[in-house]
Amino acid sequence: MIQFTVLTLFPEMFAPLQESILKRAQEAKLVKVQFVNFRDYAISKHKNVDDIPYGGGVGMLLKPEPIFAAIRDLPKPCGRRKVILMSPQGEVFRQEKAKEWAEEGELVFICGHYEGFDERIRELADEEVSIGDYVLTGGELAAMVMIDAVARLVPGVLGEDASAEEDSHSISLLEYPQYTRPADFEGRQVPEILLSGHHALIKRWRRKESLRRTFSRRPDLINAVTFRPEDYSILEELILEHEEIAAWQDLWKHLCPRPKRRRKSSHNPASKLSEDSH
Ligand code: 4GY
User: Fold this and answer.
1) Backbone angles phi, psi at 71, to 5 degrees
2) What is the rounded distance in angstroms from the CA atom of residue 232 to the CA atom of residue 215?
3) What CA–CA distance (Å, rounded) separates 31 from 57?
4) Would you call 177 a catalytic residue per the annotation?
5) Using omega within 30 degrees of 0 as the cis cutoff, is the peptide bond preceding 219 cis?
6) Which residues lie below 8 Å from residue 237, measured CB to CB, with a gap of 6+?
7) Pocket residues for ligand 1 (CB within 6 Å)?
8) Residue 152 annotated among the catalytic residues of the structure
9) Residues in CB range of 231: below 8 A, 6 or more apart
10) Given 115, 127, 128, 237, which residue is catalytic?
């Protein structure tokens, strides 16, 4: 069981976590999500959680006291606990981080709102993490994204046979195109190879299309790809189909198959001829 604790002024925003796969995971006690509204820890009679910035400037900042009090009031964790601050100034959240966090006992997400945090709130967090280079109105959507990405890695959440592991490997390489029935949809055909039943050729086709997609859509991922010896011939084909790919050739030239040393043979007049010439 992994526990997600969310510090937020808007727990109602998390309704989407009560649907579909995460709903089932919570019913099966594989995942628990709980909310702490840190407004409950505000001390002033108007329950203020924000205030104007020292030194002037626009907008309001979250005050430190309610968030400090909420964190201090959390019950002792059962296992390992990590406190995470949602912020566009944090390290960008990736699959690797989701895998790491899936091993924790409890993840506490601090969701800000308004224009920002009082800087002293940052010391409560073990990590400051962003879902990407854009600014949201609050950390809630970011926390939901991270909870979803981590929860699906918890054993049992995706079901017995479905492996989250397989698609997380393929983050460094984009997925190949997939098709289901019908084989002909209004004249749009499923690639013939997929109907052939030739497993080795299908595997090669999928690898080739994954590589093609990654080069064309996410060239930033290419440096992280581990090329395999059997990729060499695929990559040679791709260069002929997309000249731009030749620019990356240095990444796989070490896989170039060495030409087989031809044995001396009296049945091979060509090799005999070339030997005579020396
Ligand atoms: N991007 N990744 C993000 C965000 C909203 C003002 C601080 C992001 O994680 N969080 O944009 N958060 C801001 C709103 C206070 C958080």
Assistant:
1) -65, -45
2) 15
3) 41
4) no
5) no
6) 208
7) 86-88, 112, 114-116, 130-132, 134-136, 138-139, 142
8) yes
9) 207, 211, 252, 255
10) 115
pLDDT digits 0-9 by tens, 148-172: 999 999 999 998 767 676 555 557 8
9 CA from centroid of ligand 1 (Å): 14
Which tokens is 125 given? 């967090």
Ligand 1 pocket test, candidate residues 62, 63, 86, 109, most atoms within 8 A of CB: 86
pLDDT at 160: 77
Known active-site residue 133: no
206 is catalytic: no
Q: How far apart, in whole angstroms, are the C-alpha atoms of residue 68 and residue 84?
A: 13
Q: At what angle do helices 199-217 and 231-241 cross, to 10 degrees?
A: 50
Helices vs strands, H then E, count in the chain: 8, 10
Q: Answer for the pair 67, 7: CB distance below 8 angstroms, yes or no.
A: yes
Dist CA 164 CA 181 (whole Å): 24
The one-letter amino acid code at 121 reads I
Low-confidence ranges of the chain (pLDDT < 70): 161, 163, 165-170, 265-278
Q: Tokens representing 38? A: 């840190």
